[in-house]
Amino acid sequence: MAAVLKKRALAEYSQTVQEQPPAKQIKKLRLVKKAVVDSSGGAYIGLLDKYKSSYDVLQLLLRVSDSLPLQEDDISLAVRRLCDNFPKQKEAAVRVKILSLLGEVGTEPGSDVMAIIDDILGLLKEETSHKVIAEGLNSIFKLGKLVPDSMAPGVHSKLITVSKEYLKDTSHMVKRKCLSIIGEFLPNNERDPNTSATMRFVNDYTNSEDPRVRADAILTLIALHERGIKVDVSIYNQTCESLKDDYEVVRKAALKLVWLLGQTYPETMVDVHQDSSGGGGSGSGGGEDSIRLVDSAFSKICSGVGDLSMLVRTLSAQLLGSMLLVSDKFLQQTLDKKLISNLRKKRSAHERAWENVTSGEWASGKKWADDAPRGEAVDADQVNLIHSGACGAFVHGLEDEFLEVRSATLDALCSLSLNNTHFANMALDFLVDMFNDEIEDVRLKAIHALTKISRHIVLREDQLETILCALEDFSMDVREGLHSMMAACRLSTKGCLKMCVERLLDNLKRYPQDKKSTWHCLQKIGALHPELTLPLVPELLSIHPFFDMPEPDVEDPAYLSVLILVFNAAQHCPTMVQLFEDVTVQHYSYLRSTIPQLVPHLKYCGAHATELAPVPTSSLRFLDSILSRVAAAPSPRVSATLLEAAGRHLATLSDIDATVAGLAHFLSLYIASQLQLGKLLADNRCYSNNTTSLQANPVRNSIAHLLQLCLKLEYLFAGLDEKDVAAVKQLKLRTLALQLVYIVRASNLSALALCDNFLLQVESTERYLSETGLAPEQFTSSVFKEMSGLEEAKPGTVARILLPLLQKSVHPPPPRPSTMVRMCQATINTPSANMEVVMKFTAGLVMGIGLHADIDCLLHPHLLRIRLKYPDQQVQLIAPKQADLRQTPASQDDVIKSEDGSNPGNNYRLFTTVLISHQVWTEACYVDISLVLDLSEKESGLVHSAQKLNTSVEPCIIELCKSVKVYVSPKAVKRGV
């Protein structure tokens, strides 16, 4: 009987009831992370009454400050307790902290800003400490910015009135806070008499006994002017007096106000004789009694270039560069030092050098000091000098000992020269002199300044000689900057052109890595100077009228440089073509095939007609026809066949036509991904767990390769629109779904991490499609629906849902991106691929190999890695230094070509040293060096899956170029006898 009862009980307990879920009922899980609010601040404030010592109260207040923000319900109580405790504190430091806390609490949402301001003003009525008053004014200054617009006028007027009262305080801290409040909250109404009176009231404090108050008063006037309350021009002379102040902060503020008045009232006339500092004469020999305000302000600011303070000199130079309305006679005087000694005018070094160049005579050396400067007698009554500050102001700035002043002066010279051709030619000699500066940044700035003003100037031989000396600089930035500058400047004579070509070729021998930059420079020089290149063609190409010269080597970089110069000049000079020999014409055809971007199309006559005129390509039409045939496939089998043919054609098209190379690469990779995915779905080994490890290896490698293709589509292409990105994301989602199904159904590996990664990808794809407003594909829509109704996301459950969806899914047609799509690619220039020289080093030590590479369209520079693969299959990924990765400056032509999607700012050059180390080898072997993108950090889930699958393909390592083999031989350490 007991056995029967036990059996019946077990039967009752083992009985299960399965309930069917209601139809069309989807449960959505939403996780809301609540913000953690620390309410310890309110508790600390409640303990204020329990502490009697000032030190303990101050420590408690510091804890309150660290525990902010407060809960909204505790704000009013905290403000009341702080205000009640304020009069009880005898130490000023504690009261300062209380006022500071009131200001911080008032900035929190839910606080009554108006009430807190009134409380602070009430606490300050009986206060005598200057520090406490200053902190209280600082708190109401911060809170005044938070007052609602509807109540702002009344509150701000009240604050202005309080500030005027506290301006009578003797402390500079209080006065400065009051001036800040006035500058921020004074109403913008110039017709209001109170506004004008307040402006005069603030101006009175520019004569305060404290320099900090004087400086803040001037800065307050500037702040009011920027808010639309214009400063009256009548304070100009008073401001000029502040330029002589003993304190640096006052002089800096006065310089800004003088500049502001000069820019606001440029045409206002200023009496020269009433100018206490001399104001500057006319500088033209006339008897003018008044000058324009902008000219006078320019002269005053020029005087700041000779100030004792480096900061004042730097600010003066910066302000001078923005004064574009100044008269030419004042502007030109900044580059001219009137050196007078015993009423004889001394010529500057530039004037003496120019006289030597033009006269053609030099010192004989037979007579002592026969090359001494011979002065010119000057009548004292005829000498009219501008104020001494303007005379040679830029010369003083360029000769300053601090690089900040020299850099600011160069910027000012450049900005003023851009709008004045005559001044640009005057400043040319001084800019050229700065090429010899000891600081690299200053040299670069001088080069860039000369490049910007190149349209206004023509280089002479003496100037060009100084410029070309800078080509020997060790810095690559300086050399390439000079190449860009020479490409933009015009040369005066054929001697200049010859000198330029010779020095560039010498520079190419010394620095072979400058080859591309030198070629671009000579291309521009030839196009700009066809008339100067014509008489030099026989010499440059070694053409002799009677003898046959040996044929030059077309692979010689120097000879290629000369050809690039000549062919670009011949484009604008048809007579030059008749001078070419047959060898030159053959080399032209070769260069047109190899470097068409550097060699233009030339029209030859008669027997020299070796090239057809370029015709527009039909690549886009061919590409459209391929996609239309794929989209119109009648059956899946025909579609697969068409996709295979389309992939081959697109891969070939990407190599033939550079205009659609990025688009063809993208489509070929997308089609290859679809074909790979279709083959895997048709393979039963992806779903069966009866396969052996030998049979499973190809499937695992195929899945890893498919993941790598998806990552290439996601990370290598720029210029994709929202539809293209959505297609890539959905393709990646299919691949991850197939990977998860394979791990669950056909292996015994854990799939928890893969399932989590798949669900994150589902969430990311759904969010992106909702943000862009795009409709999902059929498979994606089904996944969204099933995953939203999933109660427990276990790998087995998810794989059981995904398998029928994958089997029933239909591949969508490939997307149609724009022609502006670009693919990230790299080219390793150094070391060369065909280098057979054995590089020997001691085993166990380190050998450095110079690496120079060009990387186009690099969207993620922080993911770039240098991969080393040793003969024993060891692989190292090295992250290059950020300083070694230099962004290629985008030329104007590149910007025009890349209107959308192909930002030329994504092109980089890598100059680094790769460190190689290994143990002893029996013979020399090759080490592979390549550039890759390491996506391990971004795609951590795929890294885990690759480790689980143990495949030979690393999906998160994307190659950017073919590897270069370096012949290496580590030698054993020689033991001494």
How is this structure best described in words?
This protein is α+β, with helices and mostly antiparallel strands and 977 residues long. It contains 39 helices and 19 strands. The strands form 6 sheets. Strands 11, 13, 14, 17, 18 and 19 form a 6-stranded mixed β-sheet that branches. Strands 10-12-16-15 form a 4-stranded antiparallel β-sheet, with no helix packed on it.
User: Helical region count?
Assistant: 39
Low-pLDDT runs: 1-39, 275-287, 339-345, 382-387, 605-616, 891-902
Main sheet, how many strands, which sense, barrel? 6 strands, mixed
**Terminal Cα span:** 100 Å
Strand content: 5-15%
Question: How much helix, percentage-wise, in residues?
Answer: 40-55%
* Global structural class: alpha+beta
Shape: flat
Overall mean confidence score, pLDDT: 81
Q: What's the total number of strands?
A: 19
What is the radius of gyration? Answer: 39 Å
Short characterization:
The chain is an alpha+beta fold and 977 residues long.
List the helices and strands and how they pair.
Blueprint: H1 2-14, H2 40-45, H3 54-66, H4 75-85, H5 92-106, H6 113-124, H7 130-144, H8 152-166, H9 172-185, H10 193-204, H11 211-226, H12 236-242, H13 248-264, E1 269-271, E2 290-292, H14 293-303, H15 310-320, H16 328-333, E3 339-341, E4 344-346, H17 349-359, E5 376-377, H18 393-398, H19 403-417, H20 421-433, H21 440-452, E6 458-459, H22 461-469, H23 476-488, E7 490-491, H24 494-510, H25 515-528, H26 530-533, H27 537-540, H28 557-570, H29 582-594, H30 619-631, H31 636-656, H32 661-681, H33 693-715, E8 717-718, H34 722-746, H35 752-772, H36 778-788, H37 795-808, E9 822-823, E10 825-830, E11 839-842, E12 847-856, E13 864-869, E14 875-878, E15 885-887, H38 892-897, E16 908-916, E17 925-934, H39 940-949, E18 957-959, E19 964-971
Parallel strand pairs: 6-7, 11-19
Antiparallel strand pairs: 1-2, 3-4, 4-5, 8-9, 10-12, 12-16, 13-14, 13-17, 15-16, 17-18, 17-19
